[in-house]
Amino acid sequence: MNKYRREVSIEILVGLFMFTVLITLGVFTIVLSSEKIWKESYQYEFVFSEISGLREGDNVYVRGLNVGRVKQTDLEEGHVRVYVTLDAPLYLRQGYIIDVVDSSMLGGKKLKIYEGPDGAPELGESMTILGAKPVDMIEELARVIGGFQAVIDAVNSGKGTLGKLLKDETIHKNMATISEDLMRIMDRIESGEGSLGQLLVADDGQLYADGKIFMANLRIISQNLADGKGTLGKMMFSSVDDNSYDDLQTTLANIRSITQSINEGEGTLGRLVRDAKLYDETTLLIEDVRAAVDDLREASPITSFGSVLFGAF
To answer: Is the predicted pLDDT of residue 83 greater than 90, yes or no?
Structure first.
């Protein structure tokens, strides 16, 4: 009897242990899968032309926050339907973007949702939500590498400026000649030949002395200007009682008066500028003078011939 009771106790303990293990596994499964059993969820359906490897269980992000997961993907004729479960409702507006992007550099995908600009009209409940065509980074990288390879092939074949620089012997020779010419110029400068060479390597101190004299002269000129000496100094620093400032003001006023008179059509020059009739008459007069000159030029051979003919008699 005691042996039977012991066996029953062991079986009960084993059963309780297995039950506890199953409960623990269930809790861990729910926690690891991030499923919220008692929280309200929202179901949405998106239509893509392709999803670039998006799978069930991949995360869904809105404004950088993980708000749900991909529940199901169905392939249909010409498109793919993606069903997602979100923890919060979506308020999509015109201009929304639903894109499949890389989850990390190591691979994986995630669904990124941009609800649309603020203030845009919201979408109707019966509208089909379209997803953007995903960009495959591997394909883009392969395309970039292919472009680089095409450039390298063109350079190797001598095409383009860089290819000619690398393959054309004439350009190489010209570059070598230019380099030799530059070396000769540098040698001449170092030896003190020419104006630049004398400026750089002259050690007699004359250049330094000339520079000091030049700076001293500039200092004297600026001091004279500051003291109001000379015509320019008087114009810059003349007092109120000085006549030069008044003369300048009077001259400018006269010039302003003359230009105003011309603009108003006063005087001969003003009439020439403003009077259209006088302009037309002047134009006709110039045309008549030009015609008279042309007539004289055409009649000069006849006059010369007549003079010679009648001069003989």
So the answer is: yes
For residue 37, give both structure tokens. Answer: 């059993």
Q: Which residues on neighbouring strands pair with residue 47, listed in sequence order?
A: 81, 130
Structure token digits, residue 286: 């110039």
Return mean pLDDT, the chain. Answer: 78
pLDDT at position 223 over 80? yes
**Beta bridge mates, 285:** none
Name which residue leads in pLDDT, 234 or 146: 146
Rounded to whole angstroms, the Cα distance separating 1 from 7 reads 10
Rounded distance between C-alpha atoms, residue 145 and residue 147, angstroms: 5
Contact 86, 92 (CB under 8 A): no
Domain ranges of the chain: 1-33, 42-139, 165-202, 206-236, 243-285
First-to-last C-alpha distance (Å) of the chain: 182
Sign of the dihedral through C-alpha 90, 93, 99, 101: negative
Strands (E), the chain: 42-48, 59-62, 65-76, 79-86, 97-102, 109-114, 129-130
**Residue 142, amino acid:** A
Contact by Cβ (8 Å): 101, 132 = no
State the Cα angle at 76 between 73 and 82, rounded to 5°. Answer: 25
Q: What is the pLDDT of residue 311?
A: 54
